[in-house]
Give the backbone structure.
Amino acid sequence: MSKEAYHHGNLKQELIERGLEFIDQNGVESLSMRKLAILSGVSSAAPYAHFENKEAFLAEVQNYITERFVETLRKTYESCHDRQRVLLELGKSYVLFFDQNPLYYSFLFSHGDIDLNHYPPFQMFQSIASRVMKELHGGKMDEYEIHNKTLAMWAMVHGLAQLYTLPAFRMMEGQNAEQIENILSSVEI
Amino acid sequence: MSKEAYHHGNLKQELIERGLEFIDQNGVESLSMRKLAILSGVSSAAPYAHFENKEAFLAEVQNYITERFVETLRKTYESCHDRQRVLLELGKSYVLFFDQNPLYYSFLFSHGDIDLNHYPPFQMFQSIASRVMKELHGGKMDEYEIHNKTLAMWAMVHGLAQLYTLPAFRMMEGQNAEQIENILSSVEI
DNA sequence: TCCTCAATCTTATCACTGATAAGATTATAT
DNA sequence: ATATAATCTTATCAGTGATAAGATTGAGGA
């Protein structure tokens, strides 16, 4: 299976990219395999040579978005060396990702088949959060309390991300970051 | 338009009830107007005498669920007279509603067209939360901080509700309430 | 070079869905 | 009782996911 395949060339990749673009502009609701096929200059059945079904296709698109999301979080984490602020920065980064791509949120989390427990961004946030908390509040907290606080914090960040998905919450560029920081830092963890 | 209508009787009501039942058991993804029509012993076009389109039908089903949700929150609020605990109880009630009807969550919040800003349960939680906070922390906080804390708390509760939608988080009956309380009360508001 | 084989793509087709139009049936109000 | 409006059926449409059968082409081995 070469990458410069025959007839079309690189159909699988193009379908995924057009899928990303379509979801970003229109959401996943009105996406159809046929539309993507025609946009790619190919017959309506061609995509099924590369994806078992629509669900499998969407799963691959989800993976692309998830990779970019994780990469965003990772960069934020690595570029912040202030342990007092790292959780705040991570939360901000989490919310801003969906603030900038609001239609991705419902695409990722709406379709109920995602296993959030094994979802890389969730695991990443959890592991960083509990590590930082142990460093900060060291012996003063037992495992159970740290676990609870970690869940509480993730829930807050994730819920806030959904909130900033809504038109009414997305103001001018740049202002949101400050607003998000104020909200997140208004509760003590 | 009488309630004991001809031919079928009370089709509109029955469609909504069967819709509720179907979504509770199968989720909204695989729901079709035709299935509901046939289940109700009626032709596939009959529902369109009562609903302009599928979206309008689903909106009415959402309203039913929302009413029950608001009613649940209202009862919780009215039966708790301890101002130190009322926010905690309200949050628990919020999370438990979706813990008990997990498929309702994605149905209500997944389809992006909901205006959370004017969504009754959201408004209710917000107004109660900011009132209670004013009562408790009275003059020590300005409006802006109370607003931020209210949003933070709602985000946490709402995010936790989504978490308890997942199979891995729904343990034995009764245990969840305690667990949710521990998580919510692990952060200071 | 030729030939086989697998990957890729097209064409045709299926069942299902949302939706509408045209017409039949019946309740209700005058 | 008759007219009117609400309700329902029958046909039909376009769009969708999906599959089967067959055509096209690339790649590797003889």
